[in-house]
User: What shape does this take?
Amino acid sequence: MKRSLSAGMLLALLLSTAAWAQSQRIEGVPVHAPGNPILADGRYYSADPAPFVFDGKLWILAGRDEAPADVNDFIMKEWQLLVTNNPKSGNWVHYPAVVRPEDVFKWATPGRAYAGQVVKGPDGRLYFYAPVHQASSTAKDKFAIGVAVADSPTGPWVDAHPSGPIVSQQVPEPNHIQNIDPTVLVDDDGRVYLYWGTFGQLRGVELERDMVTPKGRVVKVDSLTGFFEAPWLMKRSGIYYMLYAGNQAGPNSDCTPAIYHACIAYGTASSPLGPWTYRGIVLKPVSSTTSHPGAVPFNGQWYLAYHTADAKGGGHFRRSVAVDRLEFDDSQSPPAIRLLTPTRRPQPVPLPTRNIAGRATAAASNEPIPVKYWIKSLNDGITKPAPLPPDMWGSWTPDNPSHQWIEYRWDQPVTINGSRIWFWADQPTGSDTRIAPPKQWQLFYWNAGWKPILSPERYGTKPGKFQDVRFPPITTRCLRAVLTASGNDGNRAGLAVQEWEVLAPEVQAPRPPGGQPAPSCE
Ligand code: FUB
Assistant: This one.
């Protein structure tokens, strides 16, 4: 008896200490955001936005990306909040460190504070659905969904189901998926629905009104075209909508040209557990490889929150929350969601530059380009210390040819006298496998046929920095870089280029590419 009493007292002390620690950390900081992203100065990254309305204000729950610039991983230790009375004003209050997994779920490990959602339950309290790692899990994938409850968004949050997660690879039904990205809707009749999933697996289940107990069987949804992850369940005028990150990729896909990127797509249903019908695209791929939607009505207007890599120093693992108006087309049945045009803060005027690659259409010998690479990254002006495949053009296949070429086509002749190329490689020079620097490369320009520029020994091949070449001015409409793969006839490495600049003799005001692809010179 004495032992259990002191254990109980200890637990109470621990819980109250965790709650006290949470409440001590919460202090709001005013932020003025004259556009997207809301937090833009690179001091705090914010990802996986989940908007909700509470106390007449628009709140956004977000994770916090803390990965260094050269680390490709979701380093996410805590959740944060943004709140505004009026998103149009640009005035927000930022609560930087609201809660960490280990503050609330004594069964969870620190870190992996992935995409959560806060909803108001039928009892008026706030419920926070949080994917976290379950410490005691023996499953291959330790992600599990816990539920915390609070009376205010800033907490203190306490575990609403202290015996453990409500979803894992063991509960409520065994599965082999990664159990993340929960989304919850409390329907007009007070019934509660939970969906979750990633890597193409979407699951749904009804919950009891207690917000934590599964009711009925888990449904698998496979009718939402290109579903990848990040489901967001919502209801408008009696229609259920499921927004999600889709990655059906290809040169003619309406979603994304490169599979690592995602569009936000959506489907509708007339019942909360489906069947779901795919309807189209809400948002084209953003600057981060992941995309993540959350939408709510606030003061008569729907808003979509999503994240991008657009903040200072941003990246695929250093994302930042953006908000834009979401519009419906009520002339259709069911009402369609209009494609959203993302807005930005006022941007600095681009500086004059000698680099005219941005105005060209890029083409390559390996079209259609494998969907993990992205040819438009050749002339997007971005180089990264740790790029992902869609940050580059690449050519790897299990059987690589001896040569590949990449080409720029302008709609009018241009005069040029230099070029810089940034190779990417995961293998050393001379390797015959995976991706290696080219054995050599050389530029050719079009003048009634392809004419060489300088001899191959004038071209450097080091990866990870620009390799510069200067030459006497030439005028052309098409420029080709012919790359020789390293290796030999038996095995050859693939090739990859992060960025390829072409330099005019004098700086010029930057001009955007023309609307139509420039034609080939051949
Ligand atoms: O932030 C980690 C993961 O990235 C989320 O769970 C996914 O939805 C994607 O945004």
